Amino acid sequence: MEKNIWYRRIPKVDVLLESKEIARLIEECSYDVVLEAVRKELEALRTFIGECQSEKEANERVEALKERIVRRAKRASRPNMRPVINATGTILHTNLGRAPIGEQHIRHIGKIALGYSNLEYNLEEGKRGERYAHFEELLCKITGAEAAMAVNNNAAAVLLVLNTMGKGGEVVVSRGELVEIGGKFRVPDVMEQSGATLVEVGTTNKTHLADYEEAVTEETKALLKVHTSNYRIVGFTESVSVMELAKIAKEKELPLIEDIGSGVLVDLSKYGLSYEPTVQESIKAGADIVCFSGDKLLGGPQAGIIVGRKKYIDMMKKNQLTRALRIDKFTASALEILLMEYLSEERALKNIPALRMITESFGDVEKRAKKLRNMLVRRNIKADVRLDKCESQVGGGSLPLERLDSMAVCMRPKNITTAQLEERMRHLPVPIIPRTVNDEIVLDMRTIAKEGMDEIVRELSGTGILEKNWEPGEYV
Ligand SMILES: *Cc1c(COP(=O)(O)O)cnc(C)c1O
Q1: Digit-coded pLDDT (tens) for 165-193
Q2: How far apart are CA 9 and CA 5, in angstroms?
Q3: For site-directed labelling of 72, which of 55, 123, 135, 320 has its Cα 20 to 30 A away?
Q4: Which neighbouring-strand residues pair with 49?
Q5: Does pTM top 0.85 for this prediction?
Q6: Ligand 1 neighbourhood includes 331 CB (under 6 angstroms)
Q7: Would you give the DSSP letter of residue 162?
Q8: Segment (H or E) for 225
């Protein structure tokens, strides 16, 4: 093997930089970015040749050099985090960012972000204000609670609540509610971090009122109920309701805390979904503190919302931990604009994307599926395309057993394999994330909005399965 000759085929840096393609690239990206891409790709090429055993492969790799430089420089010139098209049908997809924010809401949040705001400034009195003030009253009005605040996420909320109300003492919780939520959030571990001692009562499937009563000692600081958001114990089961727990809590002069998880404010059973306890009901039933996520069924930004009795909320606001867990101005603004929608249920369902997708009728989803199929067929798609009924999920650990009837556009490509198509879809400028079932690409139309229809066709044309050919430049 004459590797020296192979190495000699590698172009020099200055020759590369002067070539037409690379000069154009420098205009588009920047000199520094391109130079870095050139160096990295030359290095990778030398390593490749060093390990390569076939002259043909080495030559091919030399020929691909410019294209690889273009791809690398383009990748380096745009943010890595970008929008994707969620075609999985899972509405609150934790890996894809959970709840999307409505466009009119983002415009408002954008204005707040663009300049200064009264985040912690009371305009009435001309002095320092509270960042929670912008949404506290709204939360109280909607949930019936006396006071409210918010921290970074619900895991942080549970930590803060237990640290404030249970530190140095015991908190009683049912064994059936010691849940692990995705991302390794475990109730027992959070308890330990908070400084409260966990007292487990009952068994996995059954906990009775008397179990709680017997567990209360001098050391008990609170009773805790955790909503088992992401799983259900079915069959021979029994748990104690918030209302019953509130009675014992009152008798023993202890606060009752509920981690309700999803924090739904609208009774979704009216729209054909299974019943999920609302925050209002929990407060009404006598919970002293309720905490929940902002980006699950509430449909807003990542946040952990805490509502309940003023005396406890005041204690939490003063807790040093709050400073470490505090929400930023984007979240405060997003929560306010989102919660305003909840003043009218009709508006909430219309203007909050997650709720709109959850409650959208099968017929409307089906219409979009037919439309997309027709758009693809009109562009002579090189694939077998068919419509198929499918089931969407709510996701985000909410309503785990719920399946929403939906319609999918299924594609089996003819010119490439299904795996290749899936891979190309992931590398598009706006990546498309589908489900793959039985060697078919399945696009669940529930999570693809009317406004996203043109975009999905435009993006798909970048994969080479539509009549317009796939070009390397589009596939970065
Ligand atoms: C999802 C969930 C959490 C964690 O909430 P994040 O906002 O994701 O931190 C905590 N408790 C319950 C019951 C949940 O369902």
Answers
A1: 999 999 999 988 887 666 677 878 888 89
A2: 7
A3: 55
A4: none
A5: yes
A6: no
A7: H
A8: strand 220-226
